Amino acid sequence: MVHTNEEIEQQLFILFRRSQAIHVSTRSGEFELDRSIYGILCLLDDEGPVRLGTIAHRFRLDPSTITRQVQAVVRLGLATKTVDPHDRRAAILSLTPVGKETIVNAREHRRKMLYSILGGWTAQQRSDFLAGLRRFNTSVDGWIDAEHEDDAQRST
């Protein structure tokens, strides 16, 4: 008999593979939006202009990794990077009109796909799934925070 945690691990892997398939099949328009570019554009669309450090914190990535990803977004003309007027050492990233149009179209396409995939689910099933995803993501965030605290304590 498979242990529940083993099955969860298997299902998470399948979810990762399926979400990658959804990502690939929702590429549309002029730009290929890899996961990092898509994530950055979604964050900018949701929150407006943000500092690069905020992006790194939200995605729990090293600032150097975010810097490379942001360079790709800027190079494509999907966002602009400007100096933060409140702290000239920091940069702010903002969507360009092309970036806004690109992410709105990509999100619309993905949401239509999800509507089709989940079309046979009841409202309660979709709500339960959403609640489970939110709880899982919150648990992962808490675990990551605890791991980072442990790492910081070990390095001092």
TrEMBL record:
<feature type="domain" description="HTH marR-type">
    <location>
        <begin position="5"/>
        <end position="138"/>
    </location>
</feature>
<dbReference type="InterPro" id="IPR036390">
    <property type="entry name" value="WH_DNA-bd_sf"/>
</dbReference>
<dbReference type="InterPro" id="IPR036388">
    <property type="entry name" value="WH-like_DNA-bd_sf"/>
</dbReference>
<dbReference type="InterPro" id="IPR000835">
    <property type="entry name" value="HTH_MarR-typ"/>
</dbReference>
<dbReference type="Pfam" id="PF01047">
    <property type="entry name" value="MarR"/>
</dbReference>
<dbReference type="InterPro" id="IPR039422">
    <property type="entry name" value="MarR/SlyA-like"/>
</dbReference>
<protein>
    <submittedName>
        <fullName>MarR family transcriptional regulator</fullName>
    </submittedName>
</protein>
